[in-house]
Structure of 3-hydroxybutyryl-CoA dehydratase:
Amino acid sequence: MSEYLKTEKKSNILYITIDRQKQLNAINRSIMDELTEIVGSVKGLDVKAVVLTGAGEKAFVAGGDINEMKDKCASEAKEFAENSHKLIRAFRECPLPVIAAVNGYALGGGFEIALACDFIYASKNALFGFPEVKLGIIPGFGGTQLLSRVAGPNVAKELIFSGRFIKAEEAAALGIVNKVTEPEELIAETEKYIKEVAGRGPLAVGLAKQTIDKGFNLSLEEALTIEASAFSILFSTKDQKEGMKAFFEKRDPEFKGE
Ligand code: CO8
């Protein structure tokens, strides 16, 4: 494993920490590829959620490694961007909630990685932004599309055209961040949420994620068809029988993910 990625399994959660503090956790190709691989193989790990965070207080991820990008030609840059999109797909296809716990700078590729997660919890000291235009480029790791989908194209344009950084509170007001915490409470607040989800039916949680993501860019009619299909699939699971039985027996359900 890369010296810059740390993983830890703790109380049903897989923590992935990007730890390259001297460069403010800027990510290079090998970190990206490894992250894609780890998120793509969480299925067999017996965890309920994945939390992605950055080491230290200063940064979540201050972007793609500019040093690695600076001499690329156009065709290399295209391949680089397309390769980075694999990470977004891996996050979307992961059957578990993937939560970004953002501390400090989440810039460029760092903002994009956070947006690729299911949602973002951020500490008060978090700063989000797309400074790419200051480098003469645009976000290339899904940022133009992911931010538009989360906050609308007008917000995406305003932030991407200027490269302006926004604080966690402004990001929350724009619907980019789900929760803002004190810096020292970021992980505890994230864990509190995951504990709640861990008691829910895992197949239901996984299918809810898939249904929301798949339906998001379709017409309402097409999206409702996907929902009806996912809804019906769950009625052939033991978890559905257990969940409804437990309701009438006035006890907590014991879901097995079957
Ligand atoms: N890449 C490489 N090195 C970086 C990066 C980065 N993105 N960000 C910071 N560093 C390095 C600095 O060069 C510096 O190194 P050194 O100590 O050797 O000089 C060290 O980290 C500390 O940084 P600063 O001294 O600059 O710290 P400050 O507190 O003064 O400033 C900032 C903090 C404002 C975050 C500043 O470092 C900064 O502006 N960083 C660059 C931010 C940026 O432009 N990010 C976007 C990069 S482009 C991008 O992300 C496109 C993604 C494309 C897909 C990527 C797929 C892999």
About this structure: Strands lie at 5-10, 13-18, 49-54, 59-61, 98-102, 105-107, 119-123, 127-129, 166-167, 179-181.
